[in-house]
Every structure is written in structure tokens, then in C-alpha cells.
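Researcher: I'm comparing several assemblies side by side, and this is the next one on my list. It has 1178 residues spread over two chains. Same procedure as the others: predict the full complex and return the structure.
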Amino acid sequence: MRLVLRFIKTYLTPYVWWFLGGAVALVLTNAMTVAIPGYLGEAIDALGQPDAVEVVLRNAGIIAFIGVLIVVIRTLSRVLFFTPGRLVEARVKRDVFERILLQQPAFLRSYPAGDLYSRVSNDVNALRLLAGFGLLSVINVASVLGLTLVQMLRLSPWLTLYMVIPLAIGLGLTQVTIRWLFILIKRMNEEISQLSDYALSTYEGIATVKAFAAEPVFEERFDELNRAYQRTTIQRAALRALISPILTIAGLVNVFLLLWIGGRFVIEGAVTAGDLVAFVSLVAILAGPLRGLSFIIAIVKQAQASLERIYEITDPDIERPDLPEPVGVPSAPPRIELRDLRFTYPDAPEPALAGVSVDVPAGGTLGVFGPTGAGKTTLLRCLTRLYNPPPGTVFIEGRDVRALDLDAWRAQAVLVPQRAFLFSESLRDNILLGSDDGEALERALDLAALRVDVDALPAGVETQVGESGLMLSGGQRQRSALARGLIREPTVLLLDDVLSAVDHGTEAELIASMRQQGGLSPTTVIVANRISALQHADVILVLRGGVVVDRGTHEELIARPGLYRDTWDKQREGEDAA
Amino acid sequence: MNAPRKAAPRASTDWSLGIRLWPFLRPHLLFFVLALLFAPASAALSIAQPYLLKVALDDHILKGDLAGTQTIALWFLGAVVLSWVTEALYLWFLSIGALRTISDLRTRVYRHTVGLSLGFFDKQPKGRLLTRVTSDIEALGETLTAGAVTIVLDVLSVLGVLIAMVWLDPWLTGVMLLLSPVVFLSVEVLRRILRRLYTEVRTSLSELNAFTTERINGVEVVQLYRDEVRSLTFYDRRLKRYRDATIRTNVYDALMYAIIDGLSSITVALILWYGSGGAVEGVLTAGLLAAFIEYVNRLFRPIQEFSAKVAVLQRAGSAMEKIFGLLDVQERVQSGEIEVLAAEGRVEIEDLRFSYGGGADVLRGISLTLAPGEVVAVVGRTGSGKTTLGRILTRAYDGYRGSVRLDGRELRELELSSARRAVGTVLQDVQIFPGDVRFNLTLGVEVDDETLWQAIRTARAEGAVDRLGGLDGRIEHKGSNLSVGEAQLLSLARTLVFDPPVVILDEATASVDTLTEALIQEAMDALLERRTVLVIAHRLSTITGSDRICLLDAGEVVEIGSHVELMRAGGAYADLFRQQFAEHDAAAGTERPSPVDAPG
């Protein structure tokens, strides 16, 4: 409940006037709706009396007037409640999304992408339901219940008492069965997500399925999952068919009671026939809001769970490790110095880097070589401060990298990641990312050896790429990502195995052109599995398990036995044989 | 978005789409018939209730007849309980019929899709195909259970109520029907507006969601390239579009709801006004009034829920269009009759020609013979046709011209499954399925453990399998608990389990460390033993062991022979080799080049 109160305080207070207005409109509508049976009863009791025509006409006029008012005021009440619901939805969505974009990888790594996505969508929906429909239902139920009861009590306290019994039983039954319903819905969600995972894995592996003629096996498994899901959906349908009309039925049972007991009261003269008809109408009015009531508890519960998941993302401070007074970043390619750099990922048992020291002169190139899991990528992440290195371990032109202004630093130090990620935008926008420098774009296309590929695309640089656009090949994606990095004219260039999908000729070309880019060459760190990409580095580190096991120039390293020379021999053998 | 334009010719399509659903409905017709049997009963019992109320009031209560009142009251209770039971049965049978239909359709869509040729999958984002078997089918299911078909009961109720009212008092009914043009007009106008708005809400939401997913997946790039502000601006634009659409929808939704609410009150007033004429004479009785008011309530409730049902119906229409659109795709490979039992592995290709979808020929008369046990490497630039050649041999694509014979039998005359198993593939990108190790190796075929372990050992995959916990070890979706190297070893083991006499090797280029690469090379060598192998070479390292090299250019065989022979002949292959060697030398110095392109 604490979370719900906090949500109300932070997100709903700005709309307090909307909600107040909505509540007034709602209570007014309900008061008018509840008043109608009274006028109706009065008209009925006047039937057969001498002043019947006058009374009936007057009451008909009143009821018609109320009907017109209801159209206006009920519309108003729903708009006043649902609009802030939508506004709150948008605000929470934005807050969560913004927080995800700004949170650093150290924080985000504990959440799978699908989970983050569901927090921005499903969990926020639960809050919208609470803010709009939930609040409306609470006030609706309270006012209808209150007003109807007052009206009924005025007509006949005894009959009112009888009316409460079926409604209470109906409400209780609904509460119990709704819990079943939610259990079934949860199971359905699990089953459908299993089913879609399975279908997706078939589609992704379709070449293998076909190559091994395994279609029947996959179809059979899919059928099994599908049948299980079908059984659950039918169960839910049965439950729904049985329980959703319960409150309506309770209302009708009340009509029976009105005939059985109320009939006797009329005959005995305790109430009038008009009162009885009024009761019948009032009972019908009650059913709708009561049905809403049965959902409120579920809505609040769901919202509570969702709030927990949302605050889990938005509450932690954004780990932007700027010092109080960040130091400016040198504008020329800097000297980079690592001093006994150690780094352990949060929750990881072993350090990813266990004491790496190296000195890269301004404009120099550092090569990093080593098997998977050696800590190569971690090294680059520490340099860009995707993960903050411990204090006193990474120095840029003599200043601790942690002291630098992060924004300025990332503008200067460009990391081209191993996995080339393109957004569903034009290739141009993917490379420029918001800037509008056409000349720079042309230059970057040439530098990244992308020109020929771009010319072959249906709309050139304007071609839509990414998930919803044209699928580029692995090599094209890599070179596009490279162009995105090079266009920034970085003073520090960090390449994470980005040349793995280009052939050797292109690779050599790319390395050469990057080094000559715009006069002064950036200080560069190249991570690679292919030695041909490393051989021109000023110094090469051979990493293994986070430790530097060897270092030297290419010539030095191939002169002595070790992983580097073994790999060099092997990779050369492959080429020589041809 | 061009949604409004697309919506125009829909009325007729909806109808024909409905007809296409028929074959899926037919097997479950019994349930629909049962449901329809209960519908009139339920409607009749429901309509009887206000009438009983009238009888009780006018004929018994107002006449002081207690015993009669209580008899009618019991009748009323009976009608209530029975209508509840019959309505529940109606809904239940309807749901069973609908859900079974949907389930069948889902299976059909999945089977149909899996049966399509690889050419089809090359063009389709996998996510879109997934939507067909999940959300599109769900949308249709929602319509069949909650939306469209319950309209049957709604229509019956409305008709029944009208009949009952006319029977009770035709004049009063006539007066009430004066209001109906107002009702229909306002509902229709609002329905049209809402229909457009729902489409807008749906498209803006799916755009917003797609954007969100993509930025979350690429959050590292966003941060590294300081793209946060631009991303948020884009997000805001999409968010605003969605928010505004939902707010506008709410206004009309609220109006729709309120109008119906208000109209039912106005109807009550109208009844009173009509009755006032005969009020003194007793034409209008308390019972009649009460019954009419009840009827009016029952008349308006279905109309009030109508807009929600229309939205559901609309979604189902577009879902069906997409589902049947997919079912209409007939890109499949035709199977022959002859079962391949055991093959020696001789492959004879003669004047092979092929084009994708009627375009220009990609293969232009290729002739090549592979003797049993021979290893032939195919090299050539992107677009030379080497990948296509492999795909023809594995029967991924149909419609080749010329002749491809396996052990003297034409490939297209062979039974498809057996042909595919005779010609195995080792793919560039490894495909691993969620499930256990055993399933990934056998793909459901019965194989004894001994054979499996034999294959695992030969493929050097013991380490990986042991780490996973043996043959029953779990493998997650996309093989996320495997390293790239382990996945490759497993896929090699899979090919060994099937033991095909012919193997098409689409050479792997994934970036793995040297140790793993050595393991993979060993496994590969073991796999190539005693088999006929066609290597689709992207790098030259694998060509080392091949008996012959076949250079393709623009879909034609330019040269063929061993590396030494081709170099000695001094033809195109040698030229290409030397040329690239020189280029590379100039650029990089010492290293030897590769005369073929890398994939991509």
C-alpha cells in the first residue's frame, strides 16, 4: 500500500483537479440515475388518481431532463477520469524509458531486455488501469452504493435488508472465483510464451529443420504445446461463462425476493406498488458498479506488483560517475596509461581483469589479443567508462579517466562494439545519429569502405535498415558501425574485433585508412582474433584470464613461442596453402 | 499511414475471409450447433422475466392475491436460474467450438509455414511469422468467443424483446421506436469515428513498442554515442501520438456509453408521457410500466457493448487477412517418389540453370561431377552463384533446370526427406534448439546412446556435453548457455549422427578463439572422411584438403582443377590469386591474401 500511496502522491497529485471534477460529475450522475426510480414510483402510485395526468407528465418531464443531463455529465465524468489515466501512463512510460536509457550497463546487466520492455509496457498499463478505471470504479461503487441504499432505506428498510443478502453472496462468490480466473490467466500466459518461444526457435533454425527433414518432429512438439494451451483456454472460458453473470443473477434473485416478500408488503399495505417498481429499478442500477468492484482488488494488487517492478528501475541513482567537478578532456589524441587495472563485474566471482599495465603514447596503437573470456572487451569498456574502472588505474594524458567529464570523454573516445547494432532508421541516420553533416557522411562511407555497398542499396544512404528495414549482411553491418564511429573524428578509437567479417584485403585497407584519417591519427586500441589486424600496433598485449601473459611488438611476439606465435602460424598456414 | 485508404474495400473481403474460415469451423460444428440450440432458450427465458413481473404486479399483487403472487415469484426464480444455466452452456459450447477452431488454425499455420521453402524464410523477418501463430490467432479467437458470435444472442435478445413489447402494447412500442433512429444514428456515427481511432491507437502503440524494444536492445550504442537525447525526442514524438490517440478515443467512448445511458432514461420518460393519456382510465398499469422499463434495459445493454465488440471484430478482420495471406503462400519444394535408402555419394551436375523467382539466371549452365569421397571446393565472388549451388543440392530451393543426379537418380524425383538426409549440410550460422542435448543431436529421430556418444566424441564435443550434464542436459533458447564454439561442435555432432554420404559445407566464419578453432578443425576433418563434400569456400584455409577447386563466375564454371594445376595453367584463378596477392602485399606487407570475398 505504501507504494500505491507514493504513486498517488508523485503521479496523481498533478491531476487532482481532474479527479476532483470527475468525482463530482460521477456522484452527480449517480445521484440523478438513482433519483429516477423515485419519480417513476411516484408516477405509478398516481395512476388511477384524479391528478394522475398532471403527476405523470410532470415526472416524465423530470426524468427526460435528467436523461439529457446524464449524457453530458456522465461523458464528463469518464473523460475527467480516463484522460489523466492516459496522461499518467505516458508520464510513467517516459520516466521508465528515460531511466533505462540513462542507467549504466553495470545496473542494466541484471535485467534481460525482454524484462525491461515488459516494465515499460505491461507494468505501466497496470498503473493506467489503477489511475483511470480503478479510481473511477472506487468512487462509482461508493457513490452508487451509498445513494442507492439511502434511497432504498427511505422506501423500505426491511426490503433493503433482504436486498443486501443476495448481493453480498454474489460479491463473495465473485471474489473467490476471480482468484481462480487469475490463476488460469497466469497459466495461459506462461503457456503461450512457451509456445511462441518454440515457434520462434523453429523459424530461426528452419534451415536445419529442413536439412535434417525434421519437420514432423517439430510439428508434433508444437501440437503438444498448442493442445496444452487450448485446454487451459477452454477451462478459462468455462469459468468465465459461469461466473461473469453472477452479480446480474444476484440482482435478478433480488427481483424474485421483491415479488415474494415485497408482494406481501404491498398486499398488506406496508409499501406501495410504486415503491416496489422503484425497488426493481434500483436493484438493476446496483449490478454494474458491483461488477466493477470485484475487479478493483485485482487491479490494486496488480498495480502494487507493477509499481515494485517500476520503482526497482527508477529508484536507483543513475550511476553516472562524474566527480563533483569533472575535468575537461584533452582535444588532441592523448596518451593512455593503465596502471595495474583490475576489474570485477558486479556479482561475478572472478575478476575479468587482474592487473593490466600498459602505456600507449599519444597517437599510438595498442593491440589486444587473447582467447574468448580473456578480458579484451572489458578493457575497452573500462576505457569508455561503460564500466567505471577503480580509481587510480586508467589515466588519460595523466588524468584519472574517472575525473573526466563523461559526456565530453565519450565524444572523444569512440568504441565500435563487436556486435554491430543498427536502428530501424535510414543508413544515413544510423551513421550520423542526428547530426546533419553530409560531407562528413561521404568521408565516413569512404573510410569504412562502404561506398560500393551503399551504391548497391535500393535507396542509397536513405535505405531503411535495421529490424524493420533491409537486412544488411554481417560485414555491411560491421562497416556501417565503423562508419558511425569514424564520422565522429575521435581522438581515441577503440575497435572491438570489428573486422572479423571482412576479408583480408579490405581489412588492411581499413586499417591503413583509419590511421591516416585527417592528419593526426587517434590513439587506437584494436582488439582482434585475427593477427593480421594487429601486426602494425606499437605494442600488443596477449591476455589470458584477465592477465597479461605476454607483450611486445608483432615482430617480438612471433619471435618467441607462445599463443600469439601459434595462432600466427596457424592463420598464415591457412593463407599460404592457398 | 494509409490505413483509411486500405479500409475502404473491406466489406466484401470480410465476407470472403469468413468463408475461408469455414473448413476450420466445420469439424467443430457440433459445438456451434449446441450453442445455437441454447441461445434461443436463454433469450426466451430472459425475455419471460419482465413479463412475469408484469403479471405478478397487475394480476396478483395489485389484486391482493398473495398465493398467486408467490407462485409467479417462483416461476420468476425458475426463469432466472434456467436462463443463467442456458446462457452459461451457450457460452461454454461456443467457446469450445471457437477455441478448438483457433487451435486447429494455429497448427495449420505453423505446419504450413514450416513446410515452405527456405526462399520464403529468407525474405521474412522471423518476428512477423511469429505474430501469425500468436497474436493474430489470439485476436481471431477473441472475436469468435467474446465478440462476433455472442452477437447471435444479442440479436436474438433484441428481437425477442421487441416482440414481447409489441405483444404487451404495440402502441407503446411504436412510441418507443420513435427513438430508435436517434439511437442508431448516434451509435453509427460514433462507431465510425471510433473505428478510425482504434486503428490509430493500434498503429501508434505498435510503433511505440517497436521503438522501445529496439532502443533497449541497442542501449549500449545509445550510451556510447551519446544518442540519449535524440532517442528520447523520437520516443516523445511516438509517445505523444499514442497518448493523443488514446485520449481522443476515450472521449468518444465515454460519449457512446453516456448516450446509451441517457437514452434509456429518456425512454422511461417517453413511456410515462404516452401512458399519461390513459393514466386515469388505467390503460397504463404499474406492471406494464415495470415490464417495459426492464425491457428497455435489456434492449440497450447489447447496444452499449456493441462498440467494444466492433473493435474486436475489426482486429479479427485484419488478423484473418494476414493469416490467410500466409496460408496462400505456396513456395514449397516438390517431393519426388523415389526413396533414397543408401547412397554411395556420386553427384553429377549437368548444365544446371537456376533463377530466383523468374529473374535473371544465377546459375548459367553448370556441369560438375563429384566422385564418391571426393572433396571439391567452390570459390567465387559474392553473386557468383556458389551459395545458390549449395542450396539446390540440399533442396532448399526448387525449380532448377538441367540435371542434378545423386547416384544416377535425378534429385527432383527423389522423396524429399530422404534426399535431404542423404545430402547433409554444415551451415555457416549454427542453429541450436531449446530442449535437451539429445533432441538437438537427433532432432527427434530414434538413435541409441552409443551412436550418439560416438558422434559426440568424433565431433570433439564431449567437453561441451559433459558441462551441460550429459545427453539430458538442458539447452536454452538460441543456445544462450553455450559458447559459439560449443554450438558449432554440437552441430557437427548432429551431422555425424545422421551420417550423410554427401555433405555441403558452408564454411563457418564465426570469430572463435584459437583453441576452439583447432577443435572445430579436427571435428571437421573427421566429418569429411569417407564422404563426398562440396565446400562453399569463403576463406581459403579449408581449401587445403580439397581434391579439386571449382572457380565460379557469374553462374558459370570458369576453371576447375587442383590448386597446383590451376596455378600452373595460369588462367583466371591464378590471375585472381596473383592480383589480390599483389594488392594485399602493397597494402599490408607480408601476409598472403585471400582471393575470395568474405561473406558480407
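Model: For your comparison table: The first strand of chain B starts at residue 347 and ends at 355.
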